[in-house]
Design goal:
Blueprint lengths: L37 E2 L14 E4 L6 E3 L9 E3 L2 E2 L23 H5 E4 L3 H9 L9 E3 L10 H4 L1 H11 L4 E5 L8 H9 L3 E6 L5 H7 L6 H13 L4 E8 L8 H11 L3 E6 L6 H12 L4 H11 L17 H18 L18 H4 L2
Parallel strand pairs: 2-6, 4-7, 7-8, 8-9, 9-10, 10-11
Antiparallel strand pairs: 1-2, 3-4, 5-6
Length: about 350
Amino acid sequence: MPDSSKPLPVPLHGRGAASGGLSGRFDDRARESDGDWLDARESIDGEVPVLRTQVTLEKPRTIITRNRSPDIPFDRSINPYRGCEHGCIYCFARPTHAYHNLSPGLDFETKLFAKPEAPELLRRELARPGYRCEPMAIGTNTDPYQPVEARLRIMRGLLEVLAEHEHPVAITTKSARIVRDIDILGPMAAKGLAAVMMSVTTLDPVVARRMEPRASAPARRIAAIETMVKAGIPVSISVSPVVPAITDHEIEAIVEAGARAGASGAFSIVVRLPHEVSPLFREWLAVHYPDRAARVMALIGDMRGGKDNEGAFFDRFRPRGAYAAALLARFRLACRKHGLNGARFELRTDLFRAPGQQLALF
């Protein structure tokens, strides 16, 4: 737990991490930050936050990330943003900011990287000779519909390219902003080219405000599921991550809410605390839930072989012990009760037309 001899930090309005949580793995204080930060003052519920969100524009050479992890069900993904303003304290992507000499704590939430040329890069990569079409995963690292997307519209540009070339896409988000793109996703879904997973961690707005402060409110996420389903878009609900002694009692209620909204699939996994996420999460517990912090971490340790995290392939997604087994049994029972299947949808790949292919027909 955090050092009891030091005063706990005061949580900032609209932010998840209570401090920087600076990494020691790649920390080089002598190195200057890359790029010029562009200020982008964002708001939450009409209020200006204490910390300003800053965005730097990147110019990567490629946009499709290839995945070789044996326990991940997709082989390619796109991340239009690095860092995430949602500020979810449990986010497993936080440690990636350490590679840029930035903190996985507040820097991860306030110093974002955006890739405005992503749509054009995607078009080029789809046109490469030998490209083989498989579903594109978006939102598996940081959320493509975080607040800055409303202004930069990078995700929408990516969808426009994918729709134009009839390339399948699977989106994971915890933002109701996704309904903005129903005009693209609806027609894609009608062809079997689009599916969405909406993450709902809690139905309690107070818990959500503490744990994932800038993500859409739980009720708005449930409403977004209903809106997308009515538009013909297949949606599954992700009850993830389950946080012991904080959100675990809500498993059945979240599954039921998703089913009532029209979700046809469900998925769940318990919280993971890799690298710097663990001390940040412990600090967050000490600030917001000091009365149960020890119990939360004891239950996590029980599922992770006495550790805060298990990073080995397959084991990282398979918590052990009686408590983990009970959570899984409850989730499966709730899914059966409400008629929800697994979270995967079969997407078509046979419709794909590479850029330039149409001209070749003439």
